[in-house]
Prior knowledge:
alpha+beta, globular
Amino acid sequence: MTIKRIHSGGEFEAKIGYCRAVVAGGFVHVAGTVGQGDTVEEQCRAALDTIGKALEQAGTSFANAVRVNYYLPDAAEFEPCWPILAAAFGDNPPAATMIECGLIDPKYRIEIELTALA
């Protein structure tokens, strides 16, 4: 089996020892991704942009997403992201889970992890 590793150059990739995405076994596994911004909406859009670039490098797109996990320190902030997420996935929504939990840095308000068909 061939494994392709996709790096985005994010600050935590080298510190922790992981890559943005791994293409293996017919799937693209995108690591938990945070985004910059002052609001949860800005961070959500930025995270989706990073994920979208990784998917493009893997030769796929959000249309082929099969699973997404959302992690937020405050579950009440999830609803403002719904229109952004619905627009990203369009008519091809994946199975999804939202979990309220702490993130790597308190400045982050959403982290998104995704699996798509390669």
